[in-house]
Amino acid sequence: TNQWFLPAVRGDIPPGCAAHGFVCDGTRILVFGGMVEYGRYSNDLYELQASRWLWKKVKPQAPSNGSPPCPRLGHSFSLYGNKCYLFGGLANESEDSNNNVPRYLNDFYELELQHGSGVVGWSIPVTKGILPSPRESHTAIVYCRKDVGSPKMYIFGGMCGCRLNDLWELDIETMTWSRPETKGTVPLPRSLHTANVIGNKMYVFGGWVPQSAGGEISAPDGEWKCTGSFSYLNLDTTEWIGLISDCQEDKSNLLPGPRAGHCAVAVGTRLYIWSGRDGYRKAWNNQVCCKDLWYLDTERPLAPSQVQLIRATTNSFQLKWDEVPTVEGYLLQLHADSPVPPVAGIPGTGVPETSVLSSQGGCSLHQSPQSLPSVPYPEMKGDHPSQTNNLIPNNVQVSLSSNSKVEGKEKVAAPENKVTQEAMKNHADATGFKESNAPSLLPVCASSAQTSANVGELHDLDKQTVNPDASVSSTVSSTQTMVTQQAVKTESSSTNGAVVKDETSLTTFNSKSEGAETAYVMPSARVNTGQTNDSHSSRAPQRPPAPVKARDRRWYDVGIFKNNSAVVSQFYLLPEETLNINSKTGGADVPDYRLLKKQDLFPGTVYRFRVAAINGCGVGPFSKISEFKTCIPGFPGAPSTVKITKSVDCIHLSWEPPASPSGNILEYSAYLAIRSTQLQENPSQLVFMRIYCGLKTSCIVTAAQLSNAHVDYTSRPAIVFRISAKNERGYGPATQVRWLQDMKTSGSK
Fold this sequence. Notes:
The chain has 749 residues and is mainly β. It has 6 helices and 51 strands.
């Protein structure tokens, strides 16, 4: 929301302080030292439980081999594991706070934390090597390479009468200090800068630097200025890379202005920079505090989770996927089992099946909340801040490639739902890039009578009710009674069992095999065709699958979505000439959606989906492919309002009839996910046992049945039930309910 709020804190609220130490450990924050009221230096330690906004003053034990840290400011306070590391700072030798006698420190302390809340005490580690020189207003970060599990703390810069730009390394396991040799151009000496680790890079921004153009270390009374220079240190190769130089002009105010004493925090792969002092004015009392918030996307986002089905109708899907932190939106694509005819005579471009959306370059810098557009690093340029309130800010630069080469670049933006076609055409692009406005949400079809299976989660309480707002299955073909959430390209069989393709697939049974209880997992991912029920086939004949040419198996854009959910009833068709070009070149630009025609979804058709996240650096990799089938008219909807009542030796399962029965309900079936040897080989493939079949809308699940239940750990531990209804056409989609278990309960199952 980009909105500040002031929490109502309580407890031992600390006094306002400056130049303190600050670490975040999960949902708690630790604050140590700093300058408090009347210029007094502090060595108090406070803990804030952010989940309750509760402050607490904590008193660590003193070290066994020395005195606790003295009052100080400008120190570094770094967290790794369950320990904080305190280094250096500035102390006042005078007992009178009005008479400051500065003393620079280079002492080193370790603070052990208790799990969740509280601290154990201070200790003074015995270190080897040469300690860094005394300093204050420096930075310290901790980094641990993935292939070498030895954490190291890096100290850079600071102030000790004059500014410093030396780099020090502490091996935390051996407690050995050293000065690593670096390559590249070392940043200017500085203090009151920030340093943050993202991946294997330490990003250094701002601070006080020498006024002289050559950057020589000045005398203590030399002239200094604030800088907006920006560099990073590759911590694996110890090479410095400059991103923004100190003398780089920024007449359009597209970059953060020079500043010192600001704060910076890394959230995922995004770096936020807030406030600071503007030091261009020489007089100390004329400095101006900055009130702007910026962020830097340092790399393309990770792939989202696999697309999940919430609800399916005859001509639409409601989909969702897990959120990716700090992204601007998501690109959703599909391709169908049946060939989709290309559209002739429409200018535009398409996305080939083999293409991968990528961004050439590294970082992209933005001002928040005004969504500052940009181009890839190292130029660090940007567009003028957008004055519109688009759901997807006009700051996403996208390049498309199937062979790591950029074939073309366009900006992709999505307006608000109410933006008209005319308004989109009139929207100006400040950079001169061709803008393509994709709708944030495609038109939502009215819900048809047939819905897909619903998903709910019930906690382990005495009585629970779930009104499912999500679903996990598609409809059943006429020749089978197998309900699946994903990959429903199955056919009926005379066998009592059927294949479960993934954790959310449900196998129900043909009316001829009502006595069967257990569904078995076959080696194949699909059910082989056996003897079909001819009477069912005559009621809803299946369309024979059409042969699909390689050229027709294309990925089509559904659109760009602000949030991690979408209602899909249409997708964009690609021009025929674009398909022909793409089949030869293997690459394409991002299409202009305004020039493309839309294709409605068909009933009873399998569609494959994938999604990619978008940030300022471009479009990230796509998720794994999911497969869903639109419903076939005439089948009953999913049961709703599932309730679980717990008794001493059993549970009572009840539900409401489908809102759209599409005829008379002949029976209900309830299923329980059970343990099996196949689950050990492939934990993502659940096996279900039918525990009830009848006309009643309730059943008893005995303790003996529950003792055989599988506890699913894909998210929170839960026992999985599914309930489906059958009419004259056959079984419809199922409602899935996850009955949440606490760790003690789930461990005993």
